[in-house]
TrEMBL record:
Keyword hit for Oxidoreductase: yes
Source organism of the structure: Molossus molossus (Pallas' mastiff bat)
Signal peptide as annotated in the record: none
Keyword Lipoprotein included in the entry's annotation: no
Chain positions of site Lowers pKa of active site Tyr: K85
Name by which UniProt lists this protein: NADP-dependent oxidoreductase domain-containing protein
Catalytic residues of the enzyme: Y56 (proton donor)
GO molecular function: oxidoreductase activity
Annotated ranges, domain NADP-dependent oxidoreductase: 20-301
Source taxon at top rank: Eukaryota
Binding site for substrate: H118
Keywords: NADP, Oxidoreductase
Length: 324
């Protein structure tokens, strides 16, 4: 394997995705400029996979950071693997390409490396990220995901994205895409919440059997953003078993949680905006967990979700009522 791809996984369309990604979602109240600073730090530390999304509302800053690192010679554009996501208000097929073009314009890049459907639950189109009715309830609509997928395939054919995939899909929704008559490209990945409290072993097995890469978000637990996460959620990094394993390897619990995913063949996203943590999160390739460590971490699973997407619970494509 080309050393350039040594910490990468080959996708089903032939492109390579670095197994460790840098997440750019900022908690509320964090200034947007922080995303740019953190992205530059991450690239300096060695991250080459940058995970972003339209709904994070900071693609302009992240794009600027990437372009500055290209301009100063740290990286070339082809060294960077950049992911953006199609938000729920753009799932109608005719809105897909304009949504991607809008991200590209913010980023000032010619293409992204990966474009994924952010959630399978469509919302009413428009400028509002969370369109709500008079009672404050999110306004949903039903769009056939196969039509949305076809529009993503066209974006790939047009060269606007190298690869296409999905996020927050269960195995039934994946199967719906995979069994679509006239399917041109399979999803390369399914990005889902995944950590020791929700290890997604069944979904992981299913994805591996279809040559779809599982990408883990909230791999370190979650920041408690009140909009999405219950405030009494357990703090993963305080888990005693994780801490005991970390101590044994002279590592942080965060590094152990990331290494766990790498060893089970999951691409893992790590999000931090502090330099010490960003550096720490990148240091997961120079130690190995034992089979006993892996089993002990597997046993922490309790099917606990930080992100339940509860606004979409009545939607026909709500993904989390299935076991996997």
């Amino acid at each position: 394997m080309d050393p350039k791809h040594s910490h990468s996984v080959k996708l089903n369309d032939g492109h390579f995705m670095p197994v460790l990604g840098f997440g750019t979602l900022a908690s509320e109240g964090v200034p947007k400029s922080k995303a740019a600073e953190a992205t530059k730090m991450a690239i300096d530390v060695g991250f080459r996979h940058i995970d972003a999304a339209y709904i994070y509302e900071n693609e302009e800053e992240v794009g600027k950071a990437i372009r500055e690192k290209i301009a100063d010679g740290t990286v070339k554009r082809e060294d960077i693997f950049y992911t953006t996501k199609l938000w729920a208000t753009f799932l109608r097929p005719e809105l897909v390409r304009p949504a991607l073009e809008r991200s590209l314009k913010e980023l000032q890049l010619d293409y992204v490396d990966l474009f994924i459907i952010h959630v399978p639950v469509a919302m009413k189109p428009g400028e509002e990220l969370l369109p709500k009715d008079a009672n404050g309830k999110v306004i949903l609509e039903t769009v056939d995901l196969r039509d949305t997928w076809e529009a993503l395939e066209k974006c790939k054919d047009a060269g606007l994205t190298k690869s296409i995939g999905v996020s927050n899909f269960n195995h039934k929704l994946l199967e719906m895409i995979l069994n679509k008559p006239g399917l041109k490209y399979k999803p390369v990945c399914n990005q889902v919440e995944c950590h020791p409290y929700l290890n997604q072993s069944k979904l992981l097995e299913f994805c591996k059997s279809k040559d779809i890469v599982l990408v883990a978000y909230s791999a370190l637990g979650s920041q408690r953003d009140a909009n999405w996460v219950e405030k009494d959620s357990p703090a993963l990094l305080e888990e005693p078993i994780l801490n005991a394993i970390a101590k044994k390897h002279r590592r942080s619990p965060g590094q152990v949680a990331l290494r766990y995913q790498v060893q089970r063949g999951v691409v893992v996203l790590a999000k931090s905006f502090t330099e010490k943590r960003i550096k720490e999160n990148f240091q997961v390739f120079d130690f190995e967990l034992t089979p006993e460590d892996m089993k002990a971490i597997d046993d922490l699973n309790r099917n606990f979700r930080y992100f339940r997407l509860s606004f979409g619970v009545d939607h026909p494509y709500y993904p989390f009522s299935e076991e996997y």
